Structure formats: C-alpha cells, structure tokens
C-alpha cells in the first residue's frame, strides 16, 4: 500500500480539515484519490472530488480498465456521488450513485443511475477459474438436507438467498449498444428494483442481429424471510419467479447464423420472420411456459409446457403443448 497525503494544519477553532491525496494498491494497480474537506467535529461528514482507478479491472470478472470520479458527499448515514463520470475501457458513462441508511440498516438503500454514450464492450468478462476461492457477501442455497450427499443437480433459481443485511435497491443502466461474445445489441436498457423480498428486472434491446428487438420483465419474490439477531443477515426462502418476453425478428436466417450457427441453411430459411409473446414461471426445479404465442411468417403457434431436469441420476422430463393454425406444408 502506498499513500501520499497532504493535510491542512489542525486548527481547534475550525470544524474541518482539507485533505488532498491518494492511496494506492501497487500490486493490484488500484488507486483512490480525494481532494476535499473532512469534518473534525460531530456530525462527521466529508465533501470533495473523488476518483477511483482500477487499471487491471476487477480480478476474475473484468479485465478492462475501470475508472470512476465525481463529487462525493458523505455523512454518518449516507454516501452519495453526484456528477459521476465513469469509464469501462473506452466506454464513457455519466450518472449518480448513493448508499443510504446504513446506520439503521432497515433497510440499506442503494441507488444507481448510469447512462453510457457509446458501446459497452463486455468482451473482457472472465469466467472464474476457481469459483471455490471467490467468496461473495450474498450466498444462495439449493440444499434441502444439511447432511445430504453432494450431488450435481440442476437448479434454475436458488431455494434460498442470504444478504449480509436488509437491502433495497434501484439500479438503471442505459446504453446505445452492448457488445458481448462478438454479438452486438443496440438500444439496451436495464432496470433492477428490489424492495424487501420482491425484485423486478426490466430489460429491452431495440436492435438484435437479424433486425430483431426484444423486451421483457422478470418478477421474483420470496414467500418467507428471517433475520439473524447476531449478524443482521437476511435470508429469503420459498422463491416464486414469473417472466414475460415479447419481440420480433425480421430476418430469421441472419439471427440463427449469429445465435445458432450450427443450424443448416435449409432449416434456417424455412421462415423469414418471427414474432413471439412468452409468459412463464420458474421454480428451483422446473421452468413452465403457458399462454404463449410464436408466429412464424403467417403461421401462429400456441405454446405451453414444462421442463423438469433430472434428479438423482434420473431422466429430464419435458411436456410440450402446441396448437397450430394453418400450415403451408409446401414450405416444409
């Protein structure tokens, strides 16, 4: 750790000190800079310009350089950064961020609003080589028996979720484009709103490969919760998840060439356009689809069904319900 600080002379008649300096983690190439004032008498607070630089990004997550700077206002119960300017690689974002009520923690409130003015390149995302060594402050569990033998079982959502404290959140992200795995999604918007045991995720992409667009919503809630009297950690259990998604594809063959390149050209060219309206639910053990519609050119298909992955070495189970109107067999 390397620190370089300049502090104004202490004056007992003044209520604050001026601080200008930086603290660096040399090995990790990370640095925090601050230029502002800090109160020396209660109520303690601080206000000044802050900058965070991560030259190596986030280990095991993001390799690209990350930097954030803005006007910091901090008190005993709230930290806020206004006029926030951030860079993810060469992508620039503006917005604001705050964490409040962390003194009472009933709950802690997290707010973030970021707007990017150019493509977000997520090519630097990494998969952890050793997940066992990466600990998270949020833990999940799918076990129903503490002493049950270890098995690899598929699970779509955790049966329980534990946070270190009660947290409510409102996070929005808006970007003209997002690039990931050589795929580009235009007009991207993401919103996450968590309040107590309920979370709503809204997302849309107005430009997909193959002249497509999609928007959808996920509503997740937990039927029960408990709070640790010792640590204040909150555990949610009995999850219930529903989703809706709708959109269209103007050129199915081009979309398949990007998302499913192994599909042969004859199959990809059977239909030109697609529209979809999907509704369903997700539990820890299954995914269900109901009252959904897929339209391929002029052919409408009603969709429903349920998929349950195998347990204890058994077979996966799938039930599919289809209802089709007129079919042009000459195209098949």
Summarize the structure.
With 332 residues, the chain is mainly beta. It is built from 2 helices and 20 strands.
Biggest sheet character: 20 strands, mixed
- Average pLDDT taken over every residue: 86
Helix content: under 10%
What characteristic shape results from the CA principal axes? Answer: globular
| Number of H- or I-type helical stretches | 2
Strand content: over 45%
Distance from N terminus to C terminus (CA atoms, Å) equals 67 Å
Order of helices and strands: EEEEEEEEEEEEEEEEHHEEEE
Q: Compute the CA-based radius of gyration.
A: 25 Å
Segments where pLDDT lies below 50 for 5+ residues? 128-135, 144-151
The structure class reads mainly beta
The total count of strands amounts to: 20
Description:
The chain has about 325 residues and is mainly beta. The protein has 2 helices and 20 strands. It has helices at about 250-260, 265-270, and strands at about 1-5, 15-25, 30-40, 45-55, 65-75, 80-90, 90-100, 110-115, 120, 140, 160-165, 165-180, 185-195, 200-210, 210-225, 235-250, 275-280, 285-295, 300-310, 315-325. The chain has a 20-stranded mixed sheet that branches. It is globular. It starts with a strand and ends in an 8-residue tail after the last strand. About 10% of the residues are buried.
